[in-house]
Structure formats: C-alpha cells, structure tokens
Amino acid sequence: MTDAAPPENETADPAPRPRRGRPPAFDREEALTAATRLFWERGYEATSVTDLTTAMGIRPGSLYAAFGDKRTLFEEVVRRYGHSPVGAFVGVALAEETCARAAFTRILREAAAIYPDPSHPAGCLVITAATNVSPQDAGVQAHLRELRNRNRQVFADRLRTAQLDGELPPGADPEALAGYLATVIQGMSQQARDGATAEDLARVAELALRAWP
Q1: What pLDDT, in 10s, does the model give residues 46-69?
Q2: 114-120: which pairs have CB atoms within 8 A and are 24 or more residues apart?
Q3: Domains of the chain and CATH, by start
C-alpha cells in the first residue's frame, strides 16, 4: 500500500532545511603538535593561518574558537614546548643536578644530542621561531627574547650560588659565565638548523666546558 498523493489544494511539506550543527570535533593535542612543528620549522612570521589550519586539519573558525588568534596559538605552543622533554631539558638538569658543573655539563651535552635530532625540527623553537618578524609582530619577538633572558638569569643565579658554595673560585664572574653558556647553547641551536650533526655539536660542547673556571 502506498501513501496517497496530497489533495490539489494542499502542498507537500517542504524539504527540511539543513541545521547548523557544532563544528566537527578534533583532537586538541594532535592539532597543537602540528602547529608546534610548523612554527618550529618555518618560524612565526612565515607561518600563515592557512598553513596552520591545513596542518592542524581544522577550519579557520575552529582555530579562532579553540585557540584565539595566531599569536595566542603561538604562545600556547611555546608554553607546551617548554614542558616537553625537548624544551624542558635545561630546567630538568638544573633541578636534578646538585653540582653546578654537572648541571651545565649535562645541559651542553643534551643540547648537542637534542638540537639535531631528526625526530623533530632542528634547533630550539624558543631560540629560532621569531628571530626576524615584521613591526606588527614585534611583541612575539619580545616575548621569546624575555624567555631567553630569563633563562640566562637562571644560569647566573645558579652560578652565583655555586660561587658562594665554593664550587667556583672567588675570582670567577658568574654573569659572564652565564652569558657565555647561553651564547654557546643558542649557537648550537643555529648550527643544528644549518646541518651540524650530534657529533659536531658534542665537540663544541666539550670545548665549551674547558672554559669552566
């Protein structure tokens, strides 16, 4: 038995309009991982919103709804990177090693192994991601510069404590030594991006350690 046709003075119900549903869900951690790799490889300035949404597998509206604008997403990426094994190794070494020389020896040697590791983009995201930006993005550059300067200050504080504890001779200059170590680490990051191998950087690390007072 079939449905009867509607009378001539009646019309069939119109086709229902498609409803606007919620945007499809996505894995936030996977999206952040993709964004991290892109910022790390290309830098902040060269990474567009289109690049990000393509890599993250989401629409622009979903990016803005979930993460805010490009800069806010980048700042979240940097925070997340700083808590990852690749980004946190400096702080972990300083926290775990009771001797300052052992801590900085570990930092330099781990940097030599981590920065050229092919499992992720070369170098350090915080060091390289915003070295050259346009004036409107100068705040991003300043944010990373502040993080790098804060790390240098942490180095200096640890070395001053080491001097007070007798680990460094009275004539040592903790500020200068902190600056030297920070410069070597930043240089190792850039060398890794330029193709230096773990073996190349290990030699640099051992040579730098000879400057220890």
Answers
A1: 999 999 999 999 999 999 999 999
A2: 114/86, 114/89, 115/188, 115/189, 115/191, 115/192, 115/201, 116/192, 116/196, 116/197, 116/198, 116/200, 116/201, 117/86, 117/198, 120/37, 120/40, 120/86
A3: 26-83 (1.10.10.60), 87-213 (1.10.357.10)
| pTM score, whole prediction | 0.84
Residues 80-137 pLDDT 10s: 999 999 999 999 999 999 999 999 999 999 999 999 999 999 999 999 998 878 888 8
Residue pair 201/111 in contact by the 8 Å Cβ criterion: yes
Asked whether the beta carbons of 77 and 69 are under 8 A apart, the reply is: no
Q: How many CA atoms lie within 13 A of 43 on its CB side?
A: 14
